[in-house]
Design goal:
The protein contains 12 helices and 12 strands. It is an alpha/beta fold and about 325 residues long. It has a domain of about 110 residues.
Amino acid sequence: MNRPTSITAIVPVWNGRELLLRLMDSLAKQTQPATELLVMDNGSQDDAPEIARQRGARVISMGRNAGFAEAVNRGIQESRSEWLAIVNSDVEMAPDYLARLLAAAQASDAWFATGKILAAGSNDRIDGTFDVTCRGGTTWRVGHGRIDQPAFSAEKQIWSAPFTAVLLRAEIFRRVGMLDARFESYLEDVDFGLRCAQLQLHGIYVPGALAWHRGSATLGRWHSETVRRIARNQLFLVAHHYPSALVRRWFWALLVAQILWGGLALRHGAALGWARGVMQGLRQFAGARKTAVLFDREPLENLLRSNERLIRDLQAANGFDSYWKLYFLLAGGGTE
């Protein structure tokens, strides 16, 4: 007789009791239930941790706001399950979400799986699907902000899944390593995905699995601190993965991508956060590079050019975001 599949759900929390209650309700309704719920308390100042305990979760105190990556890493260390569901506290999942992810991952021998994440309160606007990174070191969460349509409804092998609501084999962390705590929050999942690609450990995007995400519920998408971390972490991605030959070759694409992203920050009143993040990323670039296991040149080039073709094709078919329109105009790419 086959033993039941064990799943530990790991949920980092920093305040937000009402959001956590909604998530826990959706976890309780899963047709493939989690065996264990670990709530990683990042120094909450409301009663979210106590609410979690009352609902049967094991709450582990981080003692401070240690960031998403460090909290998840601690949860991974505490878990003994075969599968790990890492879920943001501002997510609600359809009752069959985990069941669909597990079935698809097992059927395709994938290491991880994610579903179609819709914006909270909507049944047709996408928050995210899977991640693709361009030569310039910026990442598109495919479909973000778009109305759902067939282009975003095909099951697909992927290399990078948002850790918004993802199911992973626990073994993957022994092969790839843990999340890089230097990222704190934002893009630590993209860094992990690039490491998966380097080791050819693929995942699967399962569009029939639906969840809803409020998004940046803690600080806000264009909060100065959010922008600072993203700007810094985009440079960390380059430091961790790009061999020197590609940094030189793609310097113009890198410059264009980062300056255009700074323009978005300026438009949203967060230029200072962007500037601070860029300066921190540049100051820490050499140190981050010393501990990196860089991609070989050809596999990374093939991956990022393939990503750009996907970005360009989907943007062309569904209307270009201004960022990507300017990126391809100025940096080229996407058609080679």
